[in-house]
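[worker-b] picked up task from shared queue
[worker-b] task type: protein-ligand structure
[worker-b] ligand name resolved to ketopantoate; SMILES cross-checked against name lookup, match
[worker-b] sequence length check passed
[worker-b] input payload:
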Amino acid sequence: MGADLRYAVIGTGALGGFYGARLQRAGAEVHYLLRSDYDHVKENGLAVESPDGNFTLPEVYAYSDAQKMPPCDVAIVALKTTQNHLLSSVLPPLTETGVVLVLQNGLGVEAQAAELVGSDRVLGGLCFLCSNKVGPGHIRHLDYKKIAMGEYRADQSAGGVTERLEAIAQDFERADIPIERAEDLVLARWKKLMWNIPFNGLSVILNATTDAMMSDDNARTLAEILMEEVRQGASSQGRTVPAAFTQTMLDHTAAMKPYRTSMKIDYDERRPLEVEAMYGAPVRAAQAQGVVLPHIETLYHQLKFLDQQNRQG
Ligand SMILES: NC(=O)C1=CN([C@@H]2O[C@H](COP(=O)(O)OP(=O)(O)OC[C@H]3O[C@@H](n4cnc5c(N)ncnc54)[C@H](OP(=O)(O)O)[C@@H]3O)[C@@H](O)[C@H]2O)C=CC1
Ligand SMILES: CC(C)(CO)C(=O)C(=O)O
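[worker-b] inference finished, payload out:
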């Protein structure tokens, strides 16, 4: 992998638009794949509002067809996981040493990219970010931005910190994005699920923002029960999430600015919910090891029902 990496952002929304624009502003060459915003962004570029400072990029390399993109060193997958069935048609050509970096929430998402490009060419990242797309090519970054990034291994082993991971991490750091080098991507994914499984799902079921859930004993209890099960799920995969991490997540959420989770926004906008990647995949991974996660499974079925009703309605 050469010194100056060329990036592709596949899905220029809340997350992809934010990180892509930050990389470009820091000097990286970034190519963006867009869908509904293509004409607007080709004409006007991207605008980012952020507590770090607002900025615009009047000129960006915009595409509506991945096959027209140049070979890239790092293709960042930033679609919703509900669109991953389209991956084969939206990934750009890669350079000889090019890799796919999957920045989506959930579990098992790297495997979908690995099927297409080979399991030795995939990394994953967990983004601790609150960002929304509020208009065509218009990203509103609200809070946080750190990424825990790690190497994917088909056998689920820890991939360690490789040179290419280090090179990508340094590009992000130049863009003022803190990067945690995750030795074990599987553990990092389960730790992120400690937040997403309780709060994304409950925000839809309880029709509540994070502050409303944190200030209510019943909602907090539900969140704690779910977190305990996520720990059991991690343990079924040979990973240990320390018991104290539950309190860390609760404290983190209590300290957050009131937040409507991404799943709640998708629900309110009648868009498909990321139920399979966030709930189905962890439940199935645990089940494959003979471990049942009853509360998470219940939430999974409730969310599947609500998602279906919501989009029919
Ligand atoms: N937003 C956040 O703060 C965080 C998000 N995440 C995760 O990141 C992932 C992305 O989420 P987020 O950025 O919020 O979602 P968004 O919906 O904001 O962004 C996804 C983008 O992908 C585009 N897209 C969809 N299909 C295609 C296609 N076929 N070709 C080109 N572009 C396409 C969409 O375009 P269109 O506008 O046409 O729909 C949209 O702009 C999810 O897995 C989410 O859970 C994780 C942590 C925080
Ligand atoms: C936990 C949070 C809100 C920010 O840390 C996030 O990363 C997410 O929505 O997935």
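[worker-b] attaching auto-annotations
[worker-b] The longest strand covers residues 122-135.
[worker-b] releasing lock
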